[in-house]
Design goal:
This protein is α/β, with parallel strands linked by helices. It contains 6 helices and 9 strands. A hairpin with a 2-residue loop joins strand 4 (about 95) and strand 5. Helix 2 packs across helix 6.
């Protein structure tokens, strides 16, 4: 299924997961400033505009888990679907050293149009999928993101993979971290390179508010640049995620 704001793949897959990708593409719709935010192509190819590699990983992971995938189809610089509607960073005017010309003087009317045409349809579709159970029970949400190896003027980030989670519900993330501890060749971040709890973000909205099992995975984007890298990571992560979910469900049933 496709819409201006999002794409859905494998909606009928029976697996227990819902794979989400909030920052999948760097597309700027034509009706937004004529299809350009005024940034050079080099900036639109950076992590400030989307999460490089995350879409390919999400699609491959959804196939490996036999579970549906939903992803946004607009740049996070147009409007960020992983922010609450009242978050001051919902529409970024400056990001990692780059000024976003089309956003510098945007007013509330412009923000509302982006909310109505992009942000809200994406979240409406995500909630519909999250609320539809799999044959084996409620869906667990795994959100896929990628992070840049180094922000401008900051030290390099050593982690290969980060697991982000909220203190309000770390059940699945804790199980995932325990499974990843066996992957001795990886540098694993627990709520690194940043905290996983942001009020109003996608996990807060679609998982925490409903008691759904959830986790957020951040892959360093230089590790998932190619389709073959994305496929390899999906093949590696799928059984780890499955074991983590089984562990979480077993522990929850004993509480």
């Amino acid at each position: 299924m496709q819409h201006e704001a999002f794409r859905i793949e494998g909606e009928g897959r029976p697996g227990p997961w819902l794979v989400t990708c909030d920052h999948a593409t760097n597309r700027v719709p034509e009706w937004v400033a004529g299809g350009s935010l005024g940034l050079p192509a080099a900036d639109m190819a950076r992590h400030i505009a989307f999460d490089p590699g995350a879409l390919g990983l999400s699609r491959a992971l959804g196939a490996a888990l036999d579970s549906p995938v939903i992803y946004s189809d607009f740049s996070r610089l147009v409007i960020d679907p992983n922010r609450g509607e009242d978050d001051p960073t919902l529409v970024m005017r400056l990001y990692d050293g780059s000024v976003v010309p089309a956003n510098r003087r945007i007013g509330q009317d412009g923000i509302t149009e982006r909310l109505d045409r992009l942000y809200r349809p994406y979240h409406g579709a995500l909630e519909r999928l999250a609320a539809a159970p799999s044959p084996s029970g409620p869906r667990a949400i795994v959100a896929i993101h990628s992070f840049t190896p180094c922000l401008r003027g900051r030290p390099p980030r050593p982690w290969h993979i980060g697991v982000l989670h909220s203190h309000l519900d770390s059940r699945l993330s804790s199980a995932l971290l325990a499974e990843l501890a066996f992957e001795t060749d990886l540098c694993i971040g627990d709520n690194e390179p940043y905290s996983g709890h942001l009020p109003g973000d996608s996990i807060d909205r679609h998982a925490l508010d409903h008691g759904r099992h959830n986790t957020l995975i951040e892959l360093r984007n230089d590790l998932i640049e190619t389709q073959s890298q994305q496929a390899a990571w999906a093949a590696r992560l799928a059984p780890i995620l499955s074991r983590a979910l089984t562990r979480t469900q077993t522990e929850t049933s004993h509480v």
